[in-house]
Amino acid sequence: MMGRPMTKEWIPNINLGQDYDEAYKDATIHFDKLGKLADFFGRDMPMHLHAEYCQIHLVLNGKTFFNIDQNNYQTEGSALFFTPAATPHAFWTEPDAPGFVITFHTSLLEGILDRLDAFNHPFYLPMVLERRKLPDDEWHSIEQLFSMLKHEWKQHAAWQSAAIETLLQLLVIHLVRVSGPPQARHQHHQADIISFRKFSRLVEAHFVEERRISFYCDKLTINESRLNYICKKVADTSPKKILNGRIILEAKRLLSHTSMNLTEISYTLGFIDPSYFSRFFYKNTECTPTDFRKQHRDMP
């Protein structure tokens, strides 16, 4: 299941508004039945991503195999899967498994987390919740919110967008509650959070061609000492580790999901010397690129 020939092409980016339903080409939220999407894309969906969109899959019964960024999950019965934006994922569901899929722009999630003062909640990571592991009332709330979203999506009533965004916010609140302990409010100064978020976006845009922390400081108009302080305060790590971590994540994706050789991967990630790339990878993972590929490229 989820088998796919390795190719040199990067993981395909699927935009539902262009590839599936042009009526929602510019929409920030798309809601649909799992079965309807499966009829179009297939139940055995190969590795893909949504560059600027997050997804929540609710599968109501049957077996599900979900691969999210080198993490394999196998569930049976009702389960929920959250996939962050730009995260490679593949999945398989049983032929008649019912469910729903919400696709929404990452800016909506950022706005919701801002309003909740929940910036530290790890919504940039995949999430898997299983019905059998949650109390009945908590799972019932999830199903109820999806049912309300389905109703609101179908009726095209006045203030529909506002209602759907409100229901999405309620769903995010519920997922924050059930997935971990609440974060302390006002833990960080708002200016620090804004600077950290700007730094994160700059890293996402420039991590291939820019390894100098001074480049990011210049863009943020702050000095390196200040950036170090902000990253330590907000994320308990250094700017260099954040930058290196993003490079390693991209390297793992290329090793897992393409057949590019090490030289091609090195050049793709901005390394002129493939041997230096191999040393960099090993230093940050305690595993060689070749060994990592052997362990992950043939994942089911």
Main features:
single chain, 300 residues, alpha+beta, Jelly Rolls, Arc Repressor Mutant, subunit A, five-stranded antiparallel beta sheet, 12 helices, 9 strands, globular
- The CATH superfamily of the largest domain appears as Regulatory protein AraC
What is the CATH first-level class name of the largest domain?
Mainly Beta
Q: What CATH architecture of the largest domain do you see?
A: Sandwich
Mean pLDDT: 84
Distance between the termini: 6 Å
Identify low-pLDDT runs.
Answer: 1-9, 182-188
What percentage of residues falls in helices of 4 or more residues? 40-55%
Count of all domains: 2
| Count, helices | 12
How large a portion of the residues is in β-strands, by DSSP E?
15-25%
Q: Provide the CATH topology of the largest domain.
A: Jelly Rolls
- What is the gyration radius calculated from CA atoms? 20 Å
Estimated structural class: alpha+beta
SSE run: HEHEEEEEEEHEHHHHHHHHH
Shape: globular
Overview of this structure, please?
A five-stranded antiparallel beta sheet has the order 1-8-3-6-9. The protein has a four-stranded antiparallel beta sheet with strand order 2-7-4-5, with no helix packed on it. Helix content is 49%, strand content 17%. The longest helix has 20 residues. The chain has twelve helices and nine strands. With 300 residues, the chain is of the alpha+beta class. A hairpin with a 2-residue loop joins β4 and β5. One of its GO terms (molecular function) is sequence-specific DNA binding. This is 4-hydroxyphenylacetate catabolism regulatory protein HpaA. Pfam families: AraC_binding, HTH_18. It comes from Marinomonas piezotolerans.
